[in-house]
Give the backbone structure.
Amino acid sequence: QKEVEQNSGPLSVPEGAIASLNCTYSDRGSQSFFWYRQYSGKSPELIMSIYSNGDKEDGRFTAQLNKASQYVSLLIRDSQPSDSATYLCAVNIGGGTSYGKLTFGQGTILTVHP
Amino acid sequence: DGGITQSPKYLFRKEGQNVTLSCEQNLNHDAMYWYRQDPGQGLRLIYYSQIVNDFQKGDIAEGYSVSREKKESFPLTVTSAQKNPTAFYLCASSAGLAGNSEQFFGPGTRLTVL
């Protein structure tokens, strides 16, 4: 089992729809979770960070964390063609908030078509 | 402008050569990281440093070396011992430890072995 696993893509949604990206992780003790967006040929940019169970909203983006089930998801409402990118889930595997590194999933490619 | 700079943007290396990739940040961040990304893959951690004059191996440190003589600089040397160095190299920094601090990425360096 991979330490951080994302739902296999690619994911294709129509413009205006909700895109749902999922990520599961292996370490029950993980405390910190991050979503990054990466456009083709570019470096990742941070979209959301979440540390507590529940939902965290920022504009059209909502991160959802369920530590008991060991998954974190990212919802994108009113999806736009400019949201088309690879989305990377990152988890602080191997320790609590004092541990120094993140483990990344393999990424999910999202395409939003007009 | 505050941010992370990496140079060069593109780098070509001949077999048997060592090359050094530059990473500089003016965010006053304590921690810095080097990742490697291969096509269609997530990010894999090479080395990280939480304070000046200290660094730790990541998951794929073999064939790489780093130094952290200044807070703002964390250069990566790809040695001839790295058997498959062609990849996209990303430098990141965070204010504190990855467990409780967001990481931000530089624009990356694409290394190609000729």
Notes: The two ends of chain B are 35 Å apart (CA to CA).
